[in-house]
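Notes from hallway chat w/ T.B., transcribed later so I don't forget. T.B. wanted the structure written out for a chain they're using in a teaching module, and asked if we could keep both sequence and structure tokens in one place. Agreed to drop them here.
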Amino acid sequence: MQWALAQLLFAMAWIAGRLPWWLLHALGDGIAALWRRLDAREARVARRNLELAFPWLPAPDRDRLQRRVLATTARQALETLRFWTRPHAGNLALIRECHGIERFDAAIAAGRGVIVAAPHYGNWELLNQWLAARTAIAVLYRPPESAVGEAFLQRARADGHGRVTQVPAEGPAVRQLVRVLKAGGVVGILPDQQPKAGEGVFAPFFGMQALTMALLPRLAARTGACVLLAYCERIDGDGAAPSFALHVDAAPDGIDGEDTLAGAAALNAGVEAVARRDPAQYQWTYKRYTLRPPGSGETNPYRDLERH
């Protein structure tokens, strides 16, 4: 039954993915406008995150940035439905520029394993497809709470060639990732999700302490793998089809050291540098700061946004 429901969801995504680009983007803009009109969760969380990350920005400028954030968030979600249900070759043709591919190829050729840190910026699902087109990759992900959602993701993210191994962030995940890296393989990690309490360390992110995954710097220190930052940045979204620039950047110094706190700080600095390229393309609708440092006296900054 769960697989059947997942197939039904995929069929609905397939239909949405066949809409022309202009209509897909118009729908995204309409969804974003509706979020603002209803002051939906996405609008409230984005507004609070922008207040926390850019307190110096005048309120009218933050308001304009929030509008752009919601529009790109909605468009990204609908674009992803298309990318999940269309042949990957056609999707990858939307990447008009590539920067740093030689850095990625050299890291693989070195044979000591590669960790790709992929921030929630631009379209990370298109990045996944680009990575899978070049190499086998193990992708760490947080499983949805719904079994139907999990089955849908397995179906949507499959590359059709068995080059993508989806590794749930639980149980034996660390051992599996270590094996991949020590064999010279590639691991993909979304580095800017808040881990569970006790599974991370607090490090600065846009001027605030944020609970940050310790896994990535510890993996790098343990295996000696090369860490790279990668992202697909939207460079034109108003034409017949969007276009993207793919970037592979070196990670900040210290990300692979024995000092996990310094590694987490370097990781956040790298993600922040990417997000600052065009803040509207970053995922500000995610509650990044819910857990606060013990003994700080700080409270969850999103608590007053909840509706009962």
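Follow-up for T.B.: The chain has one domain: 2-305. Might be a good example for the class.
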